[in-house]
Structures are given as structure tokens and as C-alpha cells.
Design goal:
- It is elongated, with a radius of gyration of 29 Å.
- It has a domain at 40-118.
- The chain has helices at residues 2-20, 32-36, 55-65, 79-89, 101-117.
- The protein contains five helices and no strands.
- Helices cover 53% and strands 0% of the residues.
- By secondary structure, the chain is an all-alpha fold.
């Protein structure tokens, strides 16, 4: 009995010491579902780095905002198309002159933010 009373407190002391001197564990990684929740919807992904005003950029904006309906509608880059983009963006439409470099940059930034959050 005396042996048991001596061993139990020593064992407990070693366990407590080991727990308090261990390195903190790394934080758990995010589940895969959480990392894909903010992924863009298929077909709405932003092109990697298209040049603003390039055919690839216009095609992406056109598809993202559904400006043209199956190829019917204003030709990308025209004044009519620029106005249609502004109408689709509503209150968020850039205040810069439609079609200008500043306008394209603002549209690009806005759509990339929208696509990333949907």
C-alpha cells in the first residue's frame, strides 16, 4: 500500500510536467470545404492577368455580367456595351467615363471582388 501511495503522486507529477512543458500544437488547418466556399462559380472565374481592354478581358466581363445574350447584344468595347455594363453594375458602376482606362480598371476590380465572394 505504501508503494502505491508513493508511485501515484510521482506518476501524476511527471504527467503534469510533461503536459506543461510540451510545445503547443499547430492550429488545425481549415477544412477543404471552407477554402472552396469563396471559389468563383464555374464559368465565372476571372482570367489570370488579361490586359484591360483586351478581347479576353471584354469576353470575361461580358460573360460575368451576362451583357450579351448568346452573342446577341452590343459588341464589347462599344459605347452601347459600356453603358450596358454600367446598367448591370447599378449603383456600383464606376464614376469614370465609360470605356476609359480608369473605368476599365474600376470595373475589373469590382468584378474580381464580386467573383471572389460568390
Amino acid at each position: 500500500m505504501r508503494f502505491l501511495l508513493t508511485v501515484v503522486p510521482l506518476t501524476t507529477a511527471f504527467i503534469i510536467a510533461a503536459c506543461t512543458h510540451s510545445e503547443p500544437s499547430a492550429p488545425p488547418s481549415e477544412p477543404a470545404a471552407a477554402s472552396t466556399a469563396a471559389s468563383p462559380a464555374p464559368g465565372k472565374t476571372a482570367p489570370a492577368n488579361p490586359t484591360l481592354g483586351s478581347p479576353e478581358w471584354f469576353a470575361w466581363v461580358d460573360k460575368t455580367l451576362a451583357v450579351s445574350d448568346d452573342g446577341h447584344g452590343p459588341r464589347p468595347g462599344t459605347d452601347e456595351w459600356n453603358q450596358a455594363v454600367n446598367r448591370k453594375l447599378g449603383e456600383e458602376a464606376p464614376q469614370a467615363a465609360p470605356g476609359s482606362a480608369e473605368w476599365q480598371q474600376a470595373v475589373d476590380a469590382l468584378l474580381r471582388t464580386r467573383v471572389a465572394t460568390h
